[in-house]
Design a protein that fits this description.
Shape: globular
Helix content: 25-40%
Structural class: alpha/beta
Number of strands: 17
Distance between the termini: 17 Å
CATH class of the largest domain: Alpha Beta
CATH topology of the largest domain: Rossmann fold
Bound molecules: adenosine-5'-diphosphate, magnesium ion
Amino acid sequence: MTLRSAQEGQGRAPLLSLVNVTKSFDATQALRGVSLTIKAGEFVGLVGPNGAGKSTLIKILDGVYGPDGGTITAGRVGVVHQDLGLIDSLTVTENLRLGQPALCSVPPLLSAVRERDFCREALRAVGLRADLAHRSVERLSLGERTLVAIARTLARGAELIVVDEATSTLPPRESGWLIDTLKARRLAGAAVLMVSHKLAEILGCADRCVVLVDGKLIADEPIERVDLATLTRLMSRSSQQQAGPERACRVPAGSPLLSLAGASTALAGPFTLDVHAGEIVGVTGLVGSGLYELALLASGRTRPASGSVRTAAGVRVGLLPPDRSAQGSFPAESVAWNLTIGGLRRWRTRAGTLDHPAELGAARALAVELDVRPPNVSARMAALSGGNQQKVLLGRMLLAQSDAQAGCVVLCEPTRGVDIGARADIYRLIRQLADQGIGVLVVSSDTEDLLTLADRVGVVENQSCQRTWRPDELSTEQMASLL
Ligand SMILES: Nc1ncnc2c1ncn2[C@@H]1O[C@H](COP(=O)(O)OP(=O)(O)O)[C@@H](O)[C@H]1O
Ligand SMILES: [Mg+2]
């Protein structure tokens, strides 16, 4: 330890200290000698591919599992699991009261006053309005629910707040709000340990980043010392190794369907990148990096000021825009209407009218294929969950692509605001597109999208992306520079 960090550490006892913690489930070694120290006032990001051991680590902190070996010294830890653990049919107050026996030990009248003050204070600590206290949890937005879950851990005296992927299903505005709240708690003397697949988000809010791969803590660095490209490469390589032979990379054959060569707009570029038939190329980047500029160029929505964007003969490029609510979705119209609007030509009769029964039949069949829930195509789009709305928009692209000779799609943030169940369905649909020979470009700030889907990965940095790599191409030097 250097003199400076020794001085900084003085008077700030660690809130958490793990030394050499191990945990196995039968043959699976989920944690292999993990050591980690967190002090008050720190905001630590925990990242790693699926199956790395993140949730196991958190469950050990929460006392769900005991470790097989090693030592744990912890202050008061409050864990917000991905499912939040709230009871939806109860009010906010009732949820906050759970696990607060002190509130029940005084006479009823006093208890009511005390409870009101207690809830006001708990809600204020996370920036929620006091009048939400009597609302039932099921009537809150997902972001508000997450904040109530955090308020509950704070009210129980948590000094270290641990959040497991709490932002992964939130719309951007609500995750920004959640992160601001966590930052404020850190300034108030708590510490935060946040698990997220959104590396860009971690890079924007944490002071330190800890990388867990295959049960080992392979990096623990101040945030200034890690960047998106290195983290993405590190995680994509290890997830590739874990995935086994059934997820072998598709090796692109023939000439590309879509090709960007030094393409730039006034705002961003140059971008150089190819997409072949049947291939999934994934590109990530920080907010404001020029990521969506790339999507607009690739899909032909923006013309390049210099360089070129070329498509093979007969290729139509579809675009799933980044903001579903503002672009592409028609919330007041029916699911059927939203599905078929991009391909009405095919139901035009000789007389020039629309064959409604045929259109509706096709919409019904597609809704079943996409597993849209509820499967009622006359429901209004606005009545569907975010994940199901996203399936409908993907279905519209499928339909529009199905009469082109060869197709290419650019999918922006395909899992944004999507619940966990629908996420797997959306990954399956995207793979299906590629299996049908469509070239897919996934443009996403969520690294899980890339790790799960992409055959090749690229990162937009300083408004530019010049090359992509296969996950197994990470050099040993790049690995070593992080370890
Ligand atoms: N209860 C359990 N029983 C058996 N294996 C488990 C259990 N929980 C986790 N694992 C395994 O331990 C490894 C780490 O899982 P997990 O901690 O959930 O990873 P992460 O949260 O990083 O995706 C995985 O291989 C997973 O299959
Ligand atoms: Mg997990």
